Protein 1
Amino acid sequence: LELLASLEENLARAEKDPACRVVLLANKGPAFCAGMDMRNGPSIQATRALAAVLRRIVEHEKPVLGRIAGHCMGGGVGLAAACDISIATKDSLFGFTEVRVGVAPAVVSVVCLPKMRRSDALELFLTGERIGAERACEVGLITSAVEPGSLDGALSQVVSALLAGSQRGLAAARRLVHDVPYLSVEAAFRWTAELSAELFSSPEASEGMAAFRERRPPSWVPPAG
C-alpha cells in the first residue's frame, strides 16, 4: 500500500510539474514488480490502489515509459502494459500468475486486454505460465526487449524522440490512442476534427510550423548535448 500510494503521488506531481516532460517508471533490485504482497493475504484496499495507479498512468498528460529490468508478475504486468512505451531486458520474465493462487488478473486486464490478441490473453490468463520478454513483446504487453546492457541506450533514444514533440501534441496523441477505438465512426470523426482544428490554431502549432519553415528546432526541443 505504501508503494502504491507513493506511485500515485509521484505520478500526480509529475503531471503538475511544468519542468517534467516524460515520466519514467523503473526499478532497483532484481524485480520490476513481483505482484501483490501475499504475506498478509489479498487486500481489497491494495487492489483499489493498484487500479488508481493504472488509471493515473493511462490518463496521464505526459508520456509514461517503463524501464523493466527484472521479473514482472501479476500487477506488475499491468504497470508495464499501462505505460505508453515499455522496454524490458531479454532476461526479464512476465506472468499472469493469479490463477495459481485462486484469483484472476482482474484489474490488470483493463490495461492488458486492449493490447493483446484474444487467443494470447486466454492462454496466458488461464495457464499462469511465465513467458520471456520477447514473447511479452510479441503479444503486445511491452514495446521491445533488448539485451541488459542496451536498456538505457534504448530508453535514451525514445526519450530524445519524445522531447522532439510538443507537450500538447503528445497529450493529444495519447488521447487518440486511448479514446478513438471506443467511439463510433461518426463520433470519432466529429471529435478528431474538432481536436485537429484546436491543435492547428494553438501557439505550439504556430511555433512548430515556423520552426519547420525556418529549418530550426522548435522551442520545446532541448539544446543538443
Note: The chain has ten helices and eight strands.
Protein 2
Amino acid sequence: MSITFNTPTPLQKCRFRGIDFLLKRDDLLHPDFSGNKARKIDFFLNNIPPEIKAIVSFGSIQSNAMYSLSAFAASYNLGFRYYANHIPKLLKEHPEGNMDLALRKGAEIIEGYEKLFVGESELLIKEGLACEEAYFGIKKLALELIDSLGNKDYQIFLPSGTGTT
C-alpha cells in the first residue's frame, strides 16, 4: 500500500476574537497522518529500503508520533516497536488515547529506554519524528504556502514539540 500527500491542503479563512487568520488544513491530509506529523513522515512513505522489516522509535506514551508511526508501519506491513520511559499503571491496565490506537495498529510498546534495541533490518526514527528526513515534508509545506500566499507578508505559527517543524 502506498500513501502520498501530493495534493496541497486548503487554506481556510478564520476569525477568532476579532483576529482574521488563515488555517492550513493539514488535518485533511490523511485520517492517520495529520498536521506536522504527516509532514514529518512524508519522506518515509516512499523511501523505506526493501530490507527494512520494522520501525523502532521512542518517546512519550501518548505521543502523536507513536500513533502515526504505528499507522505507517501497519499500512506498509512493517513491524513497529516503541519504547516509552514510563507507562503509568492505569494505562497498562486500561490503554487509551494514542497508546490504545497504536496498540490497535499492532505496535509493540516496551517500557524503559534502556531496553531499546534496533536490529539489522530495522529503522530507528527519533522521538517525535525529529529527524533529518522530516525536512522533505516541511519543505513541501513551505513551498505550498509560498504558492498559496505569493509575496505577501504573513506571520506563520507552527506546532513544535521537538522543535523539528
Note: The helical segments are 35-41, 64-75, 89-93, 97-104, 134-149.
Protein 3
Amino acid sequence: MPSSAVPATYVTVAIPYVNADPHLGYAYELVQADVVARSRRAGGDRVRFLGGTDDYSLKNVLAAEAAGEDTREFVARLARRFQALAGPLDLTFDDFIHTSADLRHQPAVERLWRAALERGDLYRRHYEGNYCVGCELFYDDDALVAVDSRAACCPEHRTPTERVAEENWFFRLSRYEAQLEALISSDRLAIRPESFRREALSFIRAGLDDISVSRSVARARGWGIPVPDDPSQTIYVWFDALTNYISALGYGDDHDDFREWWLGADERVHVIGKGILRFHAVSWPAFLLAAGLPVPTRVQVHPYLTVDGMKLSKSSGVTVSPVEIVDRYGTDALRWFFARDVAETADTDFTAQRLIDRANEDLANGLGNATNRIVTLVHRACGGAVREGAEPIAETAGVGASVAEAIRDFRLRDATRVAVEAIDALNRNIDATKPWAIAKDPARIDELRELLARQLATARAVAVAIEPIVPTFAQRLVTQLSAVDGRLSEPRPVFTRLERPNLGRA
C-alpha cells in the first residue's frame, strides 16, 4: 500500500437510473467530479474516482417493459451508454460499477443488510403511503403538492403518486437522529454548499421517521437483490444503490481496496444533485453507522441544469444529449462552460449560445489569442528561440496554486475566474509593453527576449492551471508554449472559434 503520508481522496458520483439515455445535467456532475479528481492527482494526492449505474430500479423495469425488452438486457445496453460518456467528456474514472452485473455488489449489499439486522435496526411492519416511482420514495401526505387539477403529486417530479399498502422491512432511522445532527453540525460530515447543509439539518431537526427499505417481489417485478432469508421481499433500490460506494471497494469480502479507500482515506467525497440530498446526508450515513463504518467526509451538492427553465430529466423527456453537444462544439467548450457558468446553488439554464459565447470569449479570444500573439512574435523577431526559466509576470503570481485551491473546494467558478483574470492581465501586459514595437530596434533584442520569455511563462502557467478543467485544450497550449531544444514550434490555432449551426432549442 502507498505511503499514508500521501493524502488519499475517494471521489464518487451518484449512480443514475438507466431508464433512458444520459442527459446534459448528469454530464455536469461527472465533469465536476472529474475536474476535482484531476486537480488532486496533479497536486500529488492519491485519488480513486468511481462512476457507475443504478440498475435495480422499478423505473428501469417499466422503461424496459415499454420498450418491449428483457429488463436485464435493456439495463445492460443503457448502462454501457452511461459508461461510454467517459470518452466524449474526457473523464478519468478509476473504476465503474454496474450494480446488476458487477460481482462485487450483491455480497456488499447483503453484508450491510445483515450488519443493520444484527444491530437491531431492521424490522418488519405493515405500511401504507404515497409512492413516487420516479423518486423510488414514499411521501407523507403533507409533502405532496397539487399540480394543475391533480392532487397528491410528487414535489420533485410533479406527477401523481401511487397509493401503496404492503408489509416491508423498515430501518430505524429515528435511532440516528442525534448522531446525524452532530455529524453535520460539527462538519465531520461536511455538506456543501452551505445552503444544502442548512437544508439537511432542518430536515433532521424536524424529526426522522423510520424508513421502508424493502419492496415486495411482486411490486418490484422480481427485479432486485433479494432480502437475505426473506424471498418475498427485494431490497429497496436506495439501500442497494448507495452501497455501490463501498461495494466497488470490495466491502463484501473485506478487500484491501475497502480498507485503503474507505477506512483509510483522508477524504470520502460524494458528488450529487440536490434532489437526492436526503438520501446522502441522512439515509446513507445512518446505514453506515448501523454497520459501524465511517461516514463520508463530504457531500458536495449541485443544482440542476435547465432548458427554458425546465429541469433536464430522462423521465420528463426534457433532455439535451451531451454526446451531441460534444460532437458539435468539442469537449473543451462544454467542460469550460460547466466550470465557468453553472452556479453553485441556483439552477442554471443551458443554451448552446451561452456555451459558444463563453468558449469564444475565454478560450479563443482570451488565452488562445494571447498565445498566438506571443508565439508568432517569438518566431518573427527571435527565429523561434526562447530563453527558458523565466518567471511569469507579477500580476499572475500564484495562479496555479489559487486555481488548485478553488478546485479542491469545488469552487469551479472561482477557479475559472482566477484563470481568466490572469489571462486578462497577460493581454494587458502585452498591450502595455508593445513587444512588436521593441522588435523593430535590433539593439533591444535582449530586452525583447526577456519580455517574451516572461509572457510565455505566464501563458504556460495559466495553461497548466486549467488543465484539470480543459485537459485537451491545456495540453495543446503547453505544447505550443514549450520549447524543444530552445525553440518553439510554429504557431497554430489552439482553439477555433465556434459558430452556431441551426440547432433548434438546444
Note: The chain has a mean pLDDT of 93.
Protein 4
Amino acid sequence: MTMKGLVLSGGAGTRLRPLTHTQAKQLIPVANKPVLFYGLEQLANAGIRDVGIVVGDTALEIEAAVGDGSRWGMRATYIPQEAPLGLAHAVKIARDFVGDDPFVVYLGDNILRDGVREVAEGFAENDARAQILLARVPHPERFGVAELDPNEPDRIVRLVEKPSEPRSDLALVGVYLFDRSIFEAIETIRPSGRGELEITDAIQALIDRGDRVDSRLVRGWWKDTGKPEDLLEANRVVLDGFERRIDGSIDHDSSVEGVVVLESGASIESCVVRGPVVIGAGARLSHARVGPYASIAADVVVENAHIEHSILLRGAQVRGLQGRVVDSLIGRHTRVSGNRDQAGAHRHGAQVASDGESVRAQPRHHLVVGDSCTIGIGE
C-alpha cells in the first residue's frame, strides 16, 4: 500500500525571533541546509513519493524553497492552514490529500539522525492504527508524554500534553504514523485550553475506543530546532557526521584542521580553522579564527574575528571584533563590527591559535540577530 507524507510547516516560530520576523523557521539552516530539507530527505529515503506540506503565513517562502518536490523525487502538494489551530487541525485539513492511505506526519522543524524508513516499513506490516516515535528526555514536562503498557512495552495506554507531573520520561518527538482512523478520532475532540486541536487528544481518543497505538523509541539523536539553543545543538550533532572536503582555496598562511567542508568559490586567508566547520560557496575568511562547530553560509565575510559554535546565515558580515562570537545566530545580510585594526587582529589571532589561556580570557559575544541588521560592538 502507498504511504504518504505530511510535513507540518505552518508554525510562526516565535521562540526564534528576531530571525523568524523575516523568514520561515523551517528554512533556518543547520549545517548550511534548511531544517525542512532534512525531513523531506528522510521521507524520500523511506520511499514516500507524495508529500503534503501544511503551510501558514510563510507559505510563499516555503513554496519557493521546496518547489514541486522533484529534487527529492517527490511530488509536493501545499495545504494552507488559515491559523495555527493545532497539530490535529493540520492533520484534519489534509484529509483530501491523504485519502485512504496510511501516512507519516513529520514536524518540519525536527531532525532525526536515523530517519523514518524502518518505522514506516514496520507500520505497514502491523495492525496498529497509529505509531508514535518517542525519546527519553530530561525535562518531559516540556513535551507530550507517553505512558506504556507494562505488559506490552511498545503499546501506549495514555498520552498527556506537557504534564506538570510527568509519569514517564518518554516524549513525543514529532513523528507520527496513522491510518485513516485518525480522522474519525479528530472529529470527536474539542479545542484545548489554548484553543488548539491537540494531536495527543486525538491519539488518546483512538486508545480510549480500544484501537492499538504503538510506539518506537528513537535510535540515535533527535533534535527539535524550536529555540536558538536547539538550533545550535542540532548544528553541532549534524556537523559531527560530516566528512572533510576542500573545494575552495586556502592560502599558505592558514591552518585548517579536522573535518572542514569548504565549498567551491570560498576562500581562507591567514586564518585558523578547526573543524567540524562548514563554509559555503563564495564565503571569505581572513585574519580570523573559526570553529569548532561553526556553520558559515554562502557569501559570508569574516575578518579579524573569532567564531565558534555559531551559525552565520547567507551574506552576513562579521568584522573587527575583540573576543569570541560564541553560541550565536546571525541573520542574513547582517553586519556586526568592532573597531579592531587588521594588524593587531592578525597578531592577536596568532597568539590565540597557540595559547588556550588567551582563548579563555577573551570576552565572549552571544548574539541572536535577525536579518539585515547593523550592529557595532565597542571595545
Note: The first helix runs from residue 35 to 45.
